[in-house]
Amino acid sequence: MTRDLELARKILLAVWASDRPLDSALLRVSGYSPDQVADHFRLLQEAGLLDGLPTSSADRRPRWTELRLTSTGHDFIEAARNEQVWTRAKDVLASADGTVPFDLWRQALMEAALALLGRTPT
Is the model's pTM score more than 0.70? Predict the structure, then answer.
């Protein structure tokens, strides 16, 4: 399985937009299989962007209940939810061909946000 940052962003946006903790089994993302979505929940939790209680669904797929963003997840999505910031960060990291760790994505998002504000990173 390959990490898909577009899928990761969609998951984080869904969790961010919810007014209460989510259950991963309730989230469907168009164009992605349930297994891809479940794998990305795990990756986002391992990266420290999401927190939740791991369990299994009736069909033995991984599932998380009480999903919420961590403080790091909030920082990430606050920048990533802005289309201009997201596009700018993607453009900067395009040459890496999907091999960029979350920490570099966070850094690129923060730099893109600062650039849109007319400020340079310190």
Answer: yes
